[in-house]
Amino acid sequence: MVCDYFEEYSEYKVCLFTVDSKYRKGEEYYGKKIVDFEDIEKNYPPSKYDMFIAIGSSNLNKIREDVCKRAIQKGYNLATFIHPKANISSKVKIGKNCILMEFCRVLQRTEIGDGVIIWPSAFISHNNIIKDYCYIVGSTNGFCEVGENCFLASGVYIADKVKIAKDNFLAMGTVIRKNTEENSVYKGNPAQKNQNITAIEFARFLTLHSK
Length: 211
Ligand SMILES: CC(C)(COP(=O)(O)OP(=O)(O)OC[C@H]1O[C@@H](n2cnc3c(N)ncnc32)[C@H](O)[C@@H]1OP(=O)(O)O)[C@@H](O)C(=O)NCCC(=O)NCCS
Known about the structure:
Distance between the termini: 19 Å
Strand content: 25-35%
Bound molecules: coenzyme A
Structural class: alpha/beta
Shape: globular
CATH architecture of the largest domain: 3 Solenoid
Number of strands: 22
Number of domains: 2
Radius of gyration: 18 Å
CATH class of the largest domain: Mainly Beta
CATH topology of the largest domain: UDP N-Acetylglucosamine Acyltransferase, domain 1
């Protein structure tokens, strides 16, 4: 998906894919060469190439975070993609390695950190702070803050001025009206915290069972 977005709607040319050698399953992917991540800089140096880490929400976005940090350590600039049909105020600040898909909306004076993925259905209102490595399918109202590594599933709504603590998993259709606690799973309307499992454990369980 990300490869198609960059090729269709940006000035970037996608040259190749890279993966840690233990996960490599062949020589090519979608007709492009795959090279090992471990020594990619030898033949494809950061002075000539940018990177995008196209890893989804597995393990509460922590795998994407880890690989982004390894790419930055190697010296790569991480590209951000904003779809031409995304509706983003010019007063929005956006970090590195973000993807803002078609039809998402982000209003004035919102700040989006690094490694944030925003889906077409998302509406992020004004004066929000969306911290690094969030994955957002749902919506927020004005003056919200969403902590690092949160997952907001489809149909999530967050009331004005609410702070979502870091490492939250907000399940489909959750309506949040009060600040939340770190590393927690919430479901329902009004939102209820799941007392039996942390968000990091829940996300690890989902990642294992989606294979
Ligand atoms: C949370 C989620 C993963 C389901 O979790 P799960 O634990 O596998 O859910 P299960 O189907 O095993 O259900 C467990 C219980 O939680 C309830 N439940 C599951 N999802 C729920 C939700 N979104 N809201 C409220 N209750 C929910 C079920 O009714 C069930 O309750 P019961 O035991 O009383 O019958 C799913 O609801 C979700 O949010 N998926 C994310 C979808 C999405 O937005 N993806 C991004 C698209 S790009």
